[in-house]
Design goal:
This protein is of the alpha+beta class. The protein has three domains: 7-102 and 214-363, Alpha-Beta Complex (3-hydroxy-3-methylglutaryl-coenzyme A Reductase, Chain A, domain 2); 107-206, Hydroxymethylglutaryl-CoA reductase, class I/II, NAD/NADP-binding domain (Alpha-Beta Plaits), CATH 3.30.70; 367-419, Helicase, Ruva Protein, domain 3, CATH 1.10.8. It is built from 16 helices and ten strands. Helix 15 packs across helix 16. The protein is globular and about 90 Å long. The two termini are 42 Å apart.
């Protein structure tokens, strides 16, 4: 009886066929999107002073079951082992039901800074009194995304003596990330607030610290599938190190962001905003800590949970103009921004599971360097099946570097020349 091929064992044509069978895309549509260069006129409209475009490898993470739904997850990343590691952790989580994920809301806030106020408390009362009309003005600029509330708070000026007022607009972004709409609303309200308070409005922009848009994901990995109780204890010890020490926590969270950023880029999200919010959230108790937590279940299995702010969208933004981002969303099949956030958080947790397991057992380099060796072989000039020969030779020698790759390649070429 023939075993069904795993995704990583398939050739390109088979991989495209599988994706096409699970989406509304055809093989040709997928191939065209990922292989055809963006026309320069489109690139030139996306950024200033354009000269071309920069490509990243695009892969598919498999085995993900999130809230009972199967996903093929597109990931754009140049670092080897990330997609394989996330897929492996997802497979382990799948045996216990996969990931259980949720999101808070789709609320983002815009901020309007007001300075030069003679009476801050009076200005706060004025804003509160006029909240209805100000919200009406804000909502006049958008048909779908709506501002729900407007609050004012005092911020201590830690550079100069004094205080400033910040009027904060709470906006339901629904299935969009919301940046452009919120910025437009804030710029529209700025002059009105300035007139009403007799202050001076300076900054009018959204906050990327999306504390009203928290995504959580949780999964359990069986101790027997991890390698036993000792491995679970070692993983918990590694987590305790990361939670307690900021130097380790940064690298711990970087591993999480390997997964988060890769999915975000593949689906056209603002991964810089997501990064900034995530690292700020890691400091919310006054010390930089892990975005994930780990514990042991009553029967000794490993339970992991992640909590991360995620401002993402499935409408508007880059997905309207970038064919690969549009295709990435189609492959993923997320029907809402909340569903997309659940997937991204789950991939971040899966990547974290895999990294902690590797660190606690054989070390992070074993799998990573085996894949990295292939990159070195290609850089040295190897092509086709020679790439595998050179990379495997370097790995066996525990000597993975460019010079050794060139040496091995030259030896193979010499042998070929002498035999002809």
């Amino acid at each position: 009886m023939n075993r069904e091929k795993k995704f990583y064992e398939m050739n390109l044509n088979q991989r495209l066929s599988l994706i096409a069978s699970k989406t509304s895309l055809t093989k040709n549509e997928i191939s065209s999107a990922v292989n055809e260069a963006l026309p320069f006129d489109k690139v030139n409209r996306m950024v200033e002073n354009a000269i071309g475009f920069f490509s990243l490898p695009l892969g598919i993470a498999t085995n993900f079951v999130i809230n009972g739904k199967d996903y093929l997850v597109p990931m754009a990343i140049e670092e080897p082992s990330v997609i394989a590691a996330a897929s492996h952790a997802a497979k382990l989580a799948k045996s216990t039901g996969g990931f259980k994920a949720s999101t808070d809301s789709s609320i983002m806030r815009g901020q309007i800074q007001v300075t030069n106020l003679l009476d801050i408390k009076k200005a706060m009362r004025i804003i509160s009194k006029n909240k209805g009309s100000l919200l009406t003005s804000a909502n006049s600029s958008s048909k779908n995304v709506k501002a729900l509330d407007l609050k004012a708070r005092v911020v201590k000026n830690e550079i100069e003596e004094g205080k400033m007022l910040v009027a904060e607009l709470y906006v339901d972004c629904k299935d969009s990330m919301g940046a452009n709409t919120i910025n437009s609303m804030c710029e529209l309200l700025g002059p009105e607030i300035e007139r009403k308070t007799n202050g001076k409005v300076i900054v009018k922009i959204l906050s990327n610290y999306a504390t009203e848009r928290i995504a959580t994901s949780k999964a359990t990995l069986r101790k027997k599938e991890l390698g036993g109780a000792e491995v679970v204890d070692r993983m918990l010890s590694a987590y305790a190190f990361a939670f307690s020490d900021p130097h380790r926590a940064v690298t711990h969270n970087k591993g999480i962001m390997n997964g988060v950023d890769a999915v975000s880029i593949a689906t056209g999200q603002d991964f810089r905003a997501i990064e900034a919010a995530a690292h700020a959230y890691a400091c919310r108790d006054g010390k930089y800590r892990t975005l994930s937590t780990f514990s042991k279940s009553s029967n000794g299995d490993l339970v992991g949970k992640i909590e991360i702010p995620l401002s993402v969208g499935i409408v508007g933004g880059v997905s309207r103009v970038h064919p690969v981002a549009k295709m990435g969303l189609e492959i993923l099949g997320a029907k809402s921004a909340g569903e997309l956030a659940c997937v991204i958080a789950s991939v971040g947790l899966a990547q974290n599971f895999a990294a902690i397991k590797a660190l606690s057992a054989e070390g992070i380099q074993k799998g990573h360097m085996k894949l990295h060796a292939k990159n070195i072989a290609v850089a040295a000039g190897a092509t086709g099946h020679i790439v595998d020969i050179v990379s495997e030779t370097m790995y066996r020698q525990s000597n993975i570097n460019f010079d050794n790759a060139r040496t091995i390649l030259h030896e193979l070429q010499d042998r070929t020349d002498s035999s002809t």
